[in-house]
Amino acid sequence: MAPEPPWRERFARTIRDLAGRLGTDPFEPHVTLLPGLPGEPGRLSETAKRLAAELGPVDLVFRGVRHQPRFFRCIYLEAEKGKALVAAHRRAAELFDRAADRSFLPHLSLVYAHLGPEVAARLCAELGSEHPACRATALEVVHTEGPPQEWRVVASHRLSLPS
Question: What structural domains and CATH numbers belong to the chain?
Answer without folding.
Answer: 2-158 (3.90.1140.10)
